[in-house]
Amino acid sequence: MNREQLIEQIKIKKSFLCVGLDTDISLIPKFLLDFEDPVLEFNRQIIEATHDLCIAYKPNSAFYESRGIDGWKSLIETSKHIPSTCLGIIDAKRGDIGNTSSMYAKAFFDPKSSGMNFDAITIAPYMGSDSVKPFLAFENKWVILLALTSNEGAKEFQFIETGANRLFEQVILTANSWAGNDRMMYVVGATREEEFKAIRKYAPDHFLLVPGVGAQGGSLADVCRYGLSKSCGLIVNSSRSIIYASSGEDFAQRAREEAKKLQSEMEILLKGVDF
Amino acid sequence: MNREQLIEQIKIKKSFLCVGLDTDISLIPKFLLDFEDPVLEFNRQIIEATHDLCIAYKPNSAFYESRGIDGWKSLIETSKHIPSTCLGIIDAKRGDIGNTSSMYAKAFFDPKSSGMNFDAITIAPYMGSDSVKPFLAFENKWVILLALTSNEGAKEFQFIETGANRLFEQVILTANSWAGNDRMMYVVGATREEEFKAIRKYAPDHFLLVPGVGAQGGSLADVCRYGLSKSCGLIVNSSRSIIYASSGEDFAQRAREEAKKLQSEMEILLKGVDF
Fold it and tell me: How high is the ipTM of this complex?
């Protein structure tokens, strides 16, 4: 899915919601354990119930890897259920020297090699450009680079002063030379005005993937007040508050209701965007 | 394997060699393709031929992930063939928020969960302490944190001046407060004297995992001149020059010969260490 198609989906669905598939087999409704692949069945039903309300799905690779072969199978099959009207993001935080990053790119972008055909992948920036470029070598695929994360430990390195900029600003400034806003997004776990202003200074119309709205307590209105760009420029993720809205047989319906609440709020906030 | 046991293995084997299992199915001897799991058979024979000459094996996760389910199976089965006299390092470059890093830790450290029981994992530092601590919550397991990598792009962020230090030095200084040299190692792709001196200033007796000796052209003598500590403090990796020494039926024997050359050089260099 390219940038035009992504913006088109945002307009059609009046939503910039990403549903995070951080699917923990110990947290899904118990009746699903009778299925051959309970995690896949959970994800399948969540996708079926929400795909007209969101523009992206983001499986978190760790939750699948933790279950060994069974988890990897669930991830591959889940990836096949993400409809073409939604961006498929694999949250994998990879990054290594060139020939190794090429292998990671094959793992998530090349269905002939691995069975998976995601549109985008989250990448850690520490190893620099040659750790990122092998992902950009795949046409029509996106790199979503970690810039400013939402966790407590983010402060330890990302806010370090590096002369004119803090490290997270320097990462964006440097990475802007690797690809344009049609191939690169940034992970931005900010909610404070000052941080969004700093990011929008260097990435005025890039898409930003914002985690942590919902169960983790971020405010959608605050994110939008400071983060919306002229092309929307936001993909806001919510995982637990949607997928674990109920632990009963109504889990998919309840997930839809939670997604609908966020989509409705987004619809109002998008009125400020002059597409 | 704890620090004492690792040092004991270095003394017994007169070696601080790590064999990198960057096993690419397109590069292994063709006759192995008749086996049910050619990559596993290759790794099994490499391990059988070299385990008395090295103190660690390091599968590179990307090479396995790129092959989907088949690759993940090869990785899990390979992990079971690493003998207890060698440190099992999974080169995975992971790191995410706390609950996600806990899942990655289960993936590689908890055999009941995933089938894998590695001793150590490589981790990217960008997200800070809470992305690393879940790995340290597993007793007797090691974190090998990226500090200074050997690739060209390393310069873009790792050498940034951050006040008193460059970023790679600041990473070591900060991470030293998360765990001692009995739980934490650093990835150091340095060969230059000045860089090793900078690293040994903050990590005087930590083990450093040094990639790139052999096919990638680093000099073992240089690494040792500047990097050896009073407890050895080095694990030097070689991948391609060992595992792809021959593409014929003699591949394991030729791998042994290459490993023996490095071990012999290491034996001489270790005479300078007063264990």
Answer: 0.97
